[in-house]
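Give me the 3D structure for 6-phosphogluconolactonase.
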Amino acid sequence: MTSSAHHPPSAPILISFDNSDVLVDSLAQFIVKSQKEAIDKKGKFTVALSGGSLPKMLRGLIDNPSVKWNKWHVFYVDERVVPLDHADSNHRACTEALFSKVPIPSDNVYTLDPELLNDLEELSDAYEKILIREFAQKDSARFPIFDLILLGMGPDGHTASLFPNHELLNEDDRWVAYVEDSPKPPPKRITLTFPVINHASRIVFVAVGKEKAEILKQILDSPETGLPSARVKPVYPGQLYWFVDEAAAAKADYPKTPFKL
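Predicted structure for 6-phosphogluconolactonase (261 residues):
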């Protein structure tokens, strides 16, 4: 593993789009480029998805002939501890918005074990074991290195199931952890930890709408506040991107970068 001790994290790249439709198309192009580089390098593409509004922002991948679905290996950044077909399930949201409309092999989507929902410790350990199986023997890194992690951001600055002032913000050992007391329902969740998120090759936050403008300004202009989304700082040579619309970017003083592949 390359030492990152002498490489501070790269500054986030903020890309603002006129509207969410342009963002969706550009995000699909970005994902396809990330996919191509990963497949060329190692024959597969590892990606972790969030829930919330994110699954609907992936619609640019549907009917996209450049997507090699059989090479995708999809994990969840976080998941609600509910049955997989429950209305609160991130897997259900991703299935309805994307997987049901594309030819991805179901074995390539790694869900929670629905048999273990009554034991949070066992549930998170089982998901971590899946990651170990899929990553550990291939990477010499201490943590898995995803090709791409796609994140959303809540109005309180949370991302994944990592909430402001929660003890999990300081977790630096486990790959997967559980939450019993989420401030928003449902209370029980599992989540990837910051070390896993920050070891990804590329991380993209997607944020749209004027209700995200104030918190986006805080995260980009005053990251020292320590809000969870501001703690996403990829380990060198990883890179962090923000794909936002003009409404979300309206209050930030942070420099914008034009979109280019």
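The beta strands are 13-17, 45-49, 72-76, 78-80, 148-151, 176-179, 189-192, 202-207, 239-245. Let me know if you want a second pass.
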